Batch of 3 targets.
Target 1
Amino acid sequence: MSTSTKGSKPGKKQGERPFYEKQTDKETSSDIIKQARVSLRPVDTERPFTPQNNDRRLFPTYGRSNERPPSVFSLDSAHFLGSDSQPNSESSSRLPSGSSRAPSGSSRLPSRSGRPPSGGARLQPINHIPEICSSSQAEILQISPPKLPKPPGEQLLTTRSRLKLFNRDVPLLPQPLERRNSNPTPPTKSPVDSRRAHSGPKERTKNFYEERGEGEGAEQIRVLSAEACVNQERSQRTSNVSLTPSERKYSSGRTTKSGIGSRKEKESPEECLLWNTNILPIVEQLVPKNKETEEIDRMCILCDQLFSVLSKLNMLGRTAIRRSETLKIVYKLIDLDSAELSLKASRIVLAFEVTGSNLTSLCKLIFKISKNKENDILFQKNNILDLIVKLIASTNYQKVSDALIYCIGALKFLTGNNAILKDLADYGCTESLARLLININTATMEGLPVAHGVPNLLLQVTGTLRNLADKPATHATFISCQIIPELCKIIDTFPLDGDLMFNISRILSKLTLNQECCTILKNHPTTFTSFLMLMNKHLSNMELIVRLCFIMGNLTAKSNDCRYCLFNTENAMETLLSVFRTYLELDIVNQRSDETLKEKFTKSLQLLKGQKYEDIFIKLVRVIANLSINQDIGPLIAANLNCIELLLQILVLKDVNQSEELVLNTVVTINNLAYYNMPGSMVVEKQIDVCEMLTKLLMMDNQEGMVEATRVFGNLSRSFEVRDYISTNKVDEMMVTLLDSGNREIVYTACGVLINLMVDKSRRPMLKSEGGIRKLIDVLHDFGPLDWQLAGMVCMILCNYSENITCSAECLGEEETSDLIALLIHYLDEEAPLEMTEAADWYEDTIDVMKYYWLTDFYPVATQLISRIEKHNTNLVPLDAP
């Protein structure tokens, strides 16, 4: 240690920053001083890192693939129906992964639940409208009548259901007594008596329509031809597009659907004029001629124009005029396989608020585009993000869970982009997802059965929230929307879903870096019970375990209430130590296999596994260290033999140069437990073993390791056995050597050990023989005005050392005595704490803090020391005994 010139004003060493100097983005000096040298300290660590998934998967590869919708599928315009299907038909809109696309001329029927898709080639439809066949024709065709007859009402229902499959609006036929233009006569026999028991469908159909008239009945039968319906619809669509505005003229009405049924609504002449003038010219051009780049660019421009005009004229939404007609044309643009064009078309479809199977297909399309990172910029350019957020907020998850899975899955990918993440947060994405969580939890709490696909949906929701939680600016929204309690409820509802629990653990590991979020999580009644339960149920899931430990470490770092809550939870310490022992044994086996099975396993793989285990140890040890801060809990942990043995095993197995954070955290934990020097403490029982481990650490070239090991020696050296060990193994000489360090914390901890060593009279000569007196005076000279606590500890060492003083010069040395008296006189001046005022930018409370520590830690012991030295300081040399 360099010594300043005598008589000069004490100051800081070059490169040494005074602890009271103002620092930006840090705690105030008073907080630093209060927490810097307490015997019990919390342990900090970094949040577990998870590399970003570059391939953008909808679900984890190790998940339950048999229960999840496919993430790879084919999609084209044929997957969209001409008009919206009912919302409750979303189950029929699911597309099996890898399903083949039907020929362009064939009709697509939504497959019934549980029925596999038909294979093979589809035949082209026959342009023939069949008529009612006679009984003789039926016999020739060998038509077998059904065994169980159906009444006319059921036959009508079946007919209408078949027609609905082709999106044909079929009017409800009136009952026989309500038919217009008919003169029914009361039957002489009941219909049941007059009907033959085994009558065929031909006869029943004929009798039913005879009441209405043969021509009208035949027309209804003709409609039953599926292929004819599709061909007629497609021909009409083609002809309508080719018409000019003058030829098209005016459409008399349109059909709009609501949540209850359908209704006819007249189209006003003004609406028709707006359509023909502003929209139809654009729609007529939305027919691509080829798939060239120029043609796709032209379609993109037209889509932008169409969306802009529809928005200005307020012709979007469920009740927009010509909605179905416009959608049919826009759907065709998807076949061009252009991500930008498909996204522009999706924006129009979204604005029209499609439902049912069309909504599911639309969400799949958006998801498919979002899987490619290069398409992220397209979502920003096309202003579609706000429409997606509104869709999530307004959609009933119980009816279209598959659609929301793909839609929110796309948001999960997009929130991985920081630029898009900010936009989505501004659009209210966090609030929409929070509302969805509340709806799901409310249904669960009311005892309703869990809807199909809810776990898969929650995976996408939590995955998106996980990305949103990366931004500290969003934490206030997480708090205001009560997302943390809702996540805790999901843990209690789906504890066995490891993927879902992993997502939630990642969210909470980010949020618990915020103290207010920690308070909310602490106040939830099942927090610690749920965490410990998850550790038991998912013991093999290392990624989940390490994050649960990190969350509990954050909660117990600054809250004494959390320490009580966690420790008093049933089987808390047993669970933590069980996880600790399990992974420590795995790590030991892993290290052994690295030596014996080198040919079978590569070294890099083994090191990777070892690093994962080490991360768990770091977080587990941190929880134990934070718990031990509590004055009631600390002694109980110190008395736990299993805990102390596990900590010592870490010091035996790990090297500070390779596992620095783990070793240092372990030493800090042992230091916290060594503070409780009382009967029953296993640290006291094994204090010599601890000292042996720490001596090895002192030999390492690691300053932080030296500081932490010296702190433990400072606690343990209260025991005579430990002081004897220190002297025998020359650790005391190492402490004197550490006084030369430029690190103020190393000097401070070394002084703590020397204070205890100087209690024993037999160990005092070592201090002078090793040059310790001069080094202590240099420490006082260099660090005194910067650190009154350290200055007070130097005075304590010299007081203990000079307990039996008879002559100051003989005890300390003549030059040392003179320098020490001069320094003490200078430092005991009341203005001493303020003499560095002009050298640094002080906080307002720093002056009071400096005076406090000068008055409490330095002044009393320095006054006693200078009084003793001056009392025995004389020029007379004592005579030897005769």
Target 2
Amino acid sequence: MSPLLFSLLLSLLSLSPLPLSSASDRLPPGASLSLNQTLLSPNAVFSLGFLPSSSSSSSSSWFAAIFYTHIPSKTPVWVANRDSPLTDPDGTLTLTPDGALSVLDGQRRRLWSSHVSVPDAAAFLLNSGNLVLRRGGAAATWQSFDHPTDTLLPGMKLRLNKTSGEATKLTSNGFIFTLEPRFGLETLLLHGRDLRWRGPMWLGIPILSVQFGDVSSRYIQTVHVSPDEIYYNYTMEDSALLVRYLLGIDGTYSFLVWDGSSKTWNATNVVPARPCDWYNRCGSGSSCDPSGGVPLCRCLDGFSPKDATGWKNGNFSSGCEPRRRLACDGSDGYKKIGGMKLPDGYSVAWDLDMGQCRQSCSLNCACRGFSHVNYSTFNMSGARCLTWGSELKDLVQVPLLSQDLYLRLAAAELADVPIGMAPASSPPGKSGRRVKILLAVGISAGLVLSGVCCYCLICRLGSRKGGDGERADLLPLEEMILASELAREKGSLPMVQFKCVRAATGNFSCLNLLGEGGFGPVYKGKLKNGEEVAVKRLSKASKQGSEEFANEVLLIAKLQHRNLVRLLCWCAHGKERILIYEFMPNKSLDSIIFDPRRSGELTWERRFAIIKGVADGIHYLHLHSRMRVIHRDLKTNNILLDKDMNPKISDFGLARIFDMNQTQANTKRVVGTYGYMAPEYALDGIFSEKSDVYSFGVIVLEIITGKRCTGYYPYKNSLNLLGYAWQLWEEGRGLELLDPAMDSRFSEIEVLKCMQVGLLCVQEFTTDRPTMTSIVSFLCGECGSLQAPKQPAFAIGRDSNPSSSPFSIAVDSLPPQSSHQTEEEKSC
């Protein structure tokens, strides 16, 4: 071959990249991938190739992406040319001779590039799903893990460079998930520059191992800190489990687990989803209660609402302000507040001890509080001191993995300051005498209280010795099933030893944590015979106390129905209050019905069966149990589902017993959950059977639609699901309410029947609402028809007719949501 011909051949080869001959994990220099070719990771879990921009077989644009090989939907975890789709079928993913990875169209125009040129480098697709460029055995010069799109895989680092301030970002449809740019101590979810959600602050634990719900493998998070950077990553104990974090196009951040049997991605955690997830939901100086209690927001100790009228009507956006100004003369002190996500807007000082941290706040008159963490607790060096100015924003009650906030208050607010945290210094004179007086009063009160406690204890011991002479021994947990029937015959439930509860839950291990509600955390327990139970442990931060605990133990023991959850036993040990139930493997209804990835599991047949089952359970409470019971807190997350998706009503802590001739009752303590509370109860404290009927109607509409009741529905001034359903019903378009995630097999008659029942139940006046007896008969086809529904309460906005409903003001006072949110995101 002549030298001229050889040079010409080399030139042609440099212009036309070499096609990949067969599937492998390596793309050599000068090689390319066409539309029908892929790289395959050594473990065959991940592939690199082109995916069509739509599911249609006639798609005319493509993306170069890494995706799961054996998942039918070809789920992408990284996309190269996300902003510049390939529209030319002759395009390629090419590793140019100079070592740059590029997406080129048929005319050799560059649509995307790695912008890193390393001659003779090859591209490798690793088992982790990471695409790396490297030469020989050298370290990677570029990797896809450093340039994520919308997915965080195990092993990927969420990183902050402390010097440059550059941080890893996941992006999707204008939403950004990243680390806080100053210190990297927390994660943020933004839409543009607007902060939507703020994650809990890093406690200082370098390695955290937890169990997410019923996921079969432990989740292990690692945090690395150095003078130059901080980064977070995670792995699963079972490396074969397919998991990922996803920032969705709707702005939600989810942890997803692949279920091979159902061929679906199951979400175990989605934010923002609950009311307290939204940034600064309650304004400054106030904390948000994620358990769904009433009110949603509460002022901190020593604070009061800035707008008392708005606060009373449910508008918490103005927040709270201190009742008294700080004196800044040494008489100010601190109150310890536990069980909280620390507020936003902090400053950090490193390597201060507890005393120095407190002093740094006391010397600054603008400092409103501090928090201290000694890293040596977690076998790390150093300590962290956080201080806050006048704004204490985005406080949320989170009993697990929370940190203590020491709130600075004027001396007059410190009557109940914890010992050791009273005044920042001890000035002479009046302040010193005040401390002595408080100590004297405290000692006297303690002696009186001790006497009362001794008297009560003696009385209690005496009562145990009386009666029929039977022993009051505590039953071991493994024997409770055998003893439960006998106990129920006596109208009570067995009490178990605390040590047995600890053994069943692995000492309340995070590995067994199922979730958390208003009562407190719920753990999965296992008896010696292998039977699984659910263990509810009263949280110290919970608003529910001994009254609700005793109410549930004494009440539910007398209730037996297939649609009521079964309480097996209870435990009271010191300050511990524990309820032990039968285990519900499918958790609560809301965990499925509002999850777009799981709601498709509930066919119409199953939904209709759930509606009828819940109706049967309420009907039993109102009419057929030993006493008439008003539940007062019916909602989708209090409807549990067994292995066969049969519904069971739970959580009777707020329930009340009615006399057989009693029609209603009144309370000054309104408790329940916004959206499910009847208007007469929410505003006047009046509750009755018809209050439960109203809540049932809301649940029915949520089951039909798969949407939360208190979302914003921009349709003819409809403020929520009730108004939206009413408008469509009035226009004869009721079937449009059906959850689109459900398949097309349904009975139009059953759907419209349930919609009519739901709208009848949520009518404004109690006399218009049906009884549970007529509802059950109608759903079972035992009665021909019901009356036409009227406009629901809490449904139509003020713009329509502000004087027509006395309830529109309270609902309309909720803070407006930004226009980019979807209906699911805007739910309160």
Target 3
Amino acid sequence: MANAATVATTQGAPQEANASVTDWIAVAAGSLGALLATLDISITNSALPQIQGQIGASGTEGTWIATGYLMSEIVMIPLAAWLTRVFGLRRFLMGTAMAFTLFSFFCGMSSSLTGMILARVGQGFAGGAMIPTAQTIIGTRLPRHQMAIGMSMFGLTVLLGPLMGPVLGGWLTENASWRWCFFLNLPISLALIALLWTGIRPEKADLQQFIKADWIGILGLALGLSSLTVILEEGQREHWFESSLIVGLSLLMLLGFILIAIGQFTARQPIIKLSLMRNPRYASVILIVSTVGAAIYGISYLLPQFLNSIAGYNAQQSGAIMLLSGVPAFMMMPILPRLMQRYDSRWLVGTGLVLFVISCMMSLNLTVDSVGHDFDASQLVRGFAQILAMMPLNQITMAAVLPHEKGEAAGLYNMSRNIGGSIGLALTGVLIDRRSSYHDAMIRESLTANSTLGQDHMAAQTASFMSQGGDQALAQLQTVGQLSRDIALQASVMTFTDCFYLLGIALALCIPLALLLKKPTLALSPAR
């Protein structure tokens, strides 16, 4: 009887109309903008050595080319909802798209480190606006029964951007010039501007929103998030709190977070709406996406490092292995919206997290002889895991809040993913440094002069070196040097295994949070 009543009620309910062509143009514009912004996070990674050589920057200075982009992007993401209300969505997005084009041109023309960093900061600030606004466009322009398609498009761009960046950057650097990592954005940005003009209706600016803004919170946001990003990016290289730079930035970060907290109580409309975290479903999404972000960014750092330092792969070869995790995204794209409409989001996200854990555990048997194809299976499993975990989360974010809160919810969601990624990278760097030293010391401690196996190994190596020419003393020195390199290599492999294991544990702890999620209520598709 209950089922019959439900069917009758559903049949009697008015059905939502499909999205118009203009709506889909707006969604395409938002997704293209998000792809540009996420692609440029990592497109310079493979080209950094060439860029540093051309602009006269050292290895440490060159890291600011990536850090400057991340720092400004993460500040802009939560500001996007407010600036959209101030200027109107079309005016704001077209302005940021033009700024992104201009700063991309300046990046490509840069001949000094200062000019490059300033251009990257501007590029990141403009790009940061494109990520949450894409999610907002989808959440406000598509009817509920087509929301899954739009969110799948958005999620696909966010996943593929960081994966494609190093590969595309490496190819352009090898076959053209590193400057094309930035000039490539120019025609794409022009296409984006045309789509924005066509797909988004003009809105009146509301300058009262600018005057009455939460300026205390905005100042706190700029200080807190930019300082946090630099601390996480540079902390390991600067030896954390042994550095006066890190100590000073930590104080600025603390001041910024205090100002954000003050804004929560004094502003009529806080710049970051932390009250959204009172919603347990939304809070669960934020915790899960932060952890998944840490895992995605952490593995995107770990895997190329292993392939480069252990297997001897170059950037292009490593990128090909990384791209394997994008294959499932293309395979599932046609069926994912139907899965999201038919099955409970808790089960989809939970399945994705379980697969993510499995993919990490598949990398626990690494050896010094492991090469790229040893990661093929784990990368494919990880690809299915990412799309099953992330796609429903994109949709749940919009469904868990009220319509007027969608902009703030999208900003906090994307900010959390990026901060989670930065934390994942920082912790991975610390773990590699500390565990490498630990394993190296433990292996050396276990080797004693009384070990028969050790003596036989040393004697065989010495004889091998002597057969290549040279006296016994030189052969013994070469043997000791080779043993030291072997120990360091074994310690590195054990460290990479530790990192995959801990990332798997962190993801496993998020699985119970998936139970707090709820499948968004979707309307039936209208008859065709």
